[in-house]
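STRUCTURE REQUEST FORM
Protein name: GB1/RHD3-type G domain-containing protein
Source organism: Pichia membranifaciens NRRL Y-2026
Requested output: structure tokens
Priority: standard
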Amino acid sequence: MSSSGNHDTATVSVHLVDEEKRFAKGLDKYVEKCYVGDDHGEDDGLNYHIVSVFGSQSTGKSTLLNRLFGTQFDVMDEEKRQQTTKGIWFSHANYVASAAEEQEAGRRRNSNNIYVLDVEGVDGRERADDKDFERKSALFALATSEVLIVNIFEHQVGLYQGANMELLKTVMEVNLSLFHEQSEKCLLLFVIRDFTGLTPISNLGESLEADMKRIWVDLNKPDQCADSQLSDFFDLKFFAISHKHYQPDKFEYNIRQLGDDFTNDRLFSHNAYHKRIPIDAWALYSEKVWDQIENNKDLDLPTQQILVSKFKCNEILNSVYDDLFLQEYSAVQEPELDPAASCAQFKELRHKCLSRYDSQASRYKGAVYSDVRRDLKAKIDLKLKGFQSTILSNLSKSLISKLDTGFASLKKTNSKKSFNYSLAGEEEKGAEYGADTSVFVENYAVELEKLEKALQELSHTLRTKESHILIGKITKKFQTKFKDCIIEELSEPTPESWDHIFSKFNELMEKIFKPYRSGDSFDFKIGLSQDENSTVHMKVLRNIWNKFDSIVHDYINDDSASRILRNLFEDSFKFDSNGLPLIWKTFSQLDSQFNKSRDHALSLFPVLCTIKGPEGSTIQKPKFDIENEPNEGIDSDDAGGENSSDEDDSENFEKSDRNSRFLTLLTPKQQAKVKARFKKETDAIYLDAKRSMVANKTS
Ligand code: GDP
Ligand code: MG
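Status: completed
Returned output:
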């Protein structure tokens, strides 16, 4: 930035693009410093105008701007006629000239923030480098300004030749490279200098307009705009200023009149030409535009406008997030201590941040503004979600441990309140709390789902554990009672033994399931579903039948069968029906008693060989779908060595084979062995008895 004058009161101008075509640094600060906010209500940063000037060198452009806007652009020295500094100059208007009577000083306050661009060193007839600069500066002026002043001497109007022609052609050509991207029209304000008054201004205007249209028709146009008109891109206006030296008073007065046109909205026409870039982004925008022009890239203005909006909105996002959100977020001490209060605080903070963003960013392109707003919201929510997760996970942990201890004490106090009920209560509490913490994070559902899942898993684990224990308990109860029954019945078998055993078995089953019967189905009162209850029932049945199997087969084997038979024999052979020892008087008496006793014992042997249903019906050991699962609730020792391996084998047999294995207590081979042993033992007893009779008789 450099000053163009030595005046100390007025705003200096900025060398926006220098001789080396470099863009000025620090333009944003200059723009910001000069900007005067709207007097009425809130300022949206759009209360400004950009005016630029274009024309041949030394046609009094800078002189005009300085008088019109109180700027201090370099003016060629009248006497020395030295060249002014080349480039594009930029200045905030210090005032706007006025011819209004009440404006005694001939000027008004620049309350609309007119910024002025002065293009220096343009001379269409000079070197290639100058031509390049002429094009670029025209492009820049058109892309950034609302009003482009085309400065022209009256005597050049209508000549349709020379420098004047070159100037207008440049504006047209440059316009063509912009037209399909430019959404707002630009006002071309022809300021006719050294106006004599001989030709009325309206005629001069018509002449200029005709020239413009002629050039427009002659220009090679891209296909897209073959049918488009000059008026699709430009509005034209004309203004005449008298000769500076020959009619100085009129000259001054004309400029003041022109100044009034800038303040009475005749020229800006209700912002019809405004580029809608908030002033705080204008420096960035103009720099990007220049960068594209300087590097000969296609100048795509809408894209540039969006890029600038994005940049600015993100800048606002970052400042809101860093300077407001993070500051106040970290000021909340130990939010976990009082989650509810912190929730409210964070909710408030979130609202405050979004409001601040809205107030600063809503002036930018709608889509960009709302996209970035969404980003800000997501960024804030991500941080808040961390807090929410902590709260939810603490809550989750405390609920689960409460549930665990609650369940333990429920069992201890043997409360009537069902386990199912207590679980449902805790699950509900979890859901409620989840909803409470949702005040600032919309998608808390995921967290809540996690909590619910954890509760369900715990609940499932507890139920599984509980049903496992219950199955074991019931099985054990059956096992003890049924073992007693088997020993009682089979140690002294009778023809009715199996009838007794089965009626005892049924009685036991009835007794065991009675507390859990609920209509046609079962309820084991540990909060299981109907399906789970029937699975438990099935498992208990499976265990009971397996116990039946193992108890009977464990009890009956070669040795026990032989012992039982011998006891049966001896009871009958040695004692009478009153239990008194028998004394045999004769050998025939002995023989008859012996035969009777042996037949009696042997007649009961089938009871020990096969399981018989009540009244001789065939018993089926049920096959359960869950057969392959390990017996539940029973130690593997209990389930029993030999038999469990029989179980495994039985899977390979047909159902009838499997069942006959269950029914067969002694195989034919074992039976023969037991019988042979029985014969041997009873023969020995018989011989003993006979020997003692002989001894008694001889003594
Ligand atoms: P610029 O190069 O277009 O910016 O022109 P300047 O403002 O530097 O002025 C160039 C010369 O023209 C100076 O000597 C001025 O005094 C003179 N000049 C300024 N305004 C007018 C005018 O309205 N008519 C004439 N004939 N000369 C002017
Ligand atoms: Mg100048």
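Reviewer notes: The chain has 20 helices and eleven strands. The two ends are 154 Å apart (CA to CA).
Form closed.
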